[in-house]
Amino acid sequence: MSSEVERTGLEQFAARARVPLGVVLAILTAVYAWAVVQAPVDSVQGVIQKILYVHPPLAYGAYLGFIFTGIGGAIYLWREREDWDRFAVAGAEVGIIFCTLMMITGPIWARGTWGKWWSWDPRLTVTLLLWFIYLAYAVLRSFSEGGARTARFAAVYGIIGVLLIPLNYYVIEIFENRSIHPDNLERSSLGDGMGFPFLMGNLTLFVAFCWLFLLRFEVETLRAHAAIRAARENR
Amino acid sequence: MSYLIASFAITAVVLVGYGWSLLRERRGFEARD
Fold first, then answer.
1. For an engineered disulfide with A11, which of A4, A7, A95, A182 has Cβ 3.0 to 4.6 Å away?
2. Residues A95, A101, A107, A109: is their CA dihedral positive or negative?
């Protein structure tokens, strides 16, 4: 009997797309760095305002990771295919990395503009809750022995967690004047010359997210296939 | 300025470090195969 474990179409796509995406990422990173350096200095906040080019793109990456966890979980429940469960795990882990970085760059920006590292502002509080929810998801996955029961529970948990994302985004509007966090960005929010670096920040960190996600998914697949091979050999 | 540099530096180090650790794990699987 062959010890090879066949890859699904999803897994083959992830392995093929990662290398060309890495080349695109390297080029984008260079343009992004140049765009941030040449971006104009804000007349009110000064140079610290340039954190704008990294903080919101990290937040979008975190949202995307957790949405991937919800999508992967939903398709796993529907189709009962383990590759979608691995897709969900990869989304959660990369989302947590992006969310953690968002929670580091945010307080640095706050210290420079509000004069304090943290405030129990509605946006910050819901973001912390979102981070804890997916951190708990990752802890659950790492401490359990796997199997369909764990995957089903994690899928439901991951889908419920996604419901917090619209609340996180719109919480500033919901609480109106009671939030000190700046409003969600609109087209007119950015000053002259700030649109291009902001676009590059979003594009570069989106591609970085995709590259890391594909790599994490591939590693999760390799781990699962190694476990299957080991189980076959022990039989 | 130091806050700005810290934000970008932490982001770059964490993302590169995370990617590097994943690549190392992936290479480990390849070496075993």
1. A7
2. negative
